[in-house]
Specification:
By secondary structure, the protein is an all-alpha fold. It is 76% helix and 0% strand. The chain is built from four helices and no strands. It has helices spanning 3-28, 42-66, 70-95, 102-125. The longest helix has 26 residues, at 3-28. The relative contact order is 0.17.
């Protein structure tokens, strides 16, 4: 693995961990601390968006690290969205002033799947790491 590849891997790993922490903070924050937007299903859109971005980061990282097929990367990224989203929903019910929601988990999984599907296009067009060529 060349120096540029190591740098890309380090950046993606750092961004993935930071984004996962951001997801955790927002998803475990008490409801009354969240902005009170009165847009229908805004919480589902937020879950979708959080896991969409997380899945793109993880899919790109897996591509650089493993060289697995996109099918396997999509499967793994979607599975991780399911596991992490499910864990957060359980933790919300048990330990935080929030309620776990099956539809939030569904949005997490759909966001993860969609992000994993989009990731190859981002990788292909080299939008993120253009300067590290």
């Amino acid at each position: 693995m060349g120096m540029g590849m190591k740098k890309k891997t380090y950046i993606l790993l750092t961004l993935s961990i930071a984004w996962a922490m951001l997801i955790f903070v927002f998803c475990t924050m008490p409801q009354n601390n969240l902005p009170g937007l009165k847009i229908p299903y805004i919480d589902k859109a937020a879950h979708f968006g959080f896991f969409f971005v997380q899945s793109i980061l993880l899919s790109l990282l897996f591509n650089f690290q493993t060289g697995k097929s996109y099918f396997h990367i999509i499967l793994l990224s979607t599975l991780l969205a399911f596991v992490y989203g499910g864990l957060i929903e359980i933790l919300q019910n048990e330990f935080f002033d929030r309620t776990g929601d099956f539809y939030d988990l569904t949005a997490d999984i759909l966001g993860g799947f969609t992000g994993a599907i989009i990731a190859p296009a981002i990788r292909h067009f080299n939008m993120i790491f253009r300067k590290y060529k």
